[in-house]
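Ticket closed. Logging final result for Catechol 1,2-dioxygenase.
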Amino acid sequence: MTATHHAPAAAESGASATERFKSDKLATVADTPKERVDLLAREVLSAVHETIRRHKVTYDEYNALKAWLIRLGEDGEWPLFLDVWVEHVIEEVATEHRQGNKGTIEGPYYVPGAPERGSRGSVPMRDNEPGTPLVWTGRVTSTDGTPLAGATIELWHADADGLYSQFAPGIPEWNLRGTFSTGSDGSFEIRTVRPAPYQIPTDGACGALIAAAGWHAWRPAHLHVKVSAPGHELLTAQLYFPGDEHNDDDIASAVKPELMLDPAPAEDGETVSYGFVLDPAA
Ligand code: DHB
Ligand code: FE
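Final structure:
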């Protein structure tokens, strides 16, 4: 299979996201208790039944749904579908108790084990990586204000074409993916480039749903992070840029006002200051 036969982002991104989920997360999925399966499956099915009655769903519409669900699996787009249209509510429920940063969805493109770059450094990138250079400084603290030394910040994001390494072809393996740690005062400095707005793949089943419903496929430009420190809850978040036309209508409903950056022009690109507050683990 050669890359020239494909739009760069789509079909391959879906299949890669499915493979990534199977290799990283499937093994950690514990058996769900029977009582929970019974309760949740019954309530979800009731909501479907209620929708059918309320809108008098026809056999043609039912068969269109069947065909679409079959295609969703064939295209490997279950992770994309769930992360775009469901994960934001899972995240909301999972973090509602937090005093520190609440975060937002992980999405389908996280890969553990990105190269380590210390507390001040550049994310791996190509020579002449396209995009505005961005110098990001910040501090990681606990909810009581204590700086957290040796905290870990995993950063991953799309390039200036809106493509993610390891999911779109032709990009170096760890491009725009790095692991940073905080210094003794909890501080870090990360050099990267501004990502572009991201369009979820349009040539698979998710794209077919978007087209059939007359929606758009865009997420605003964003930086993904996972921030962790011993004795603290893992924070999964995304950071956004003011003025992006999709901040108010993100297809994945994952923008929160507290995740908005405030970049300032600098000599060569932009600087931005943004830190994280982690909740002690219960
Ligand atoms: C999707 C992509 C993202 O970059 C993201 O943050 C969330 C969802 C997706 O294509 O499903
Ligand atoms: Fe993303």
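Residues 1-9 have pLDDT under 50 and may be disordered. No further action required.
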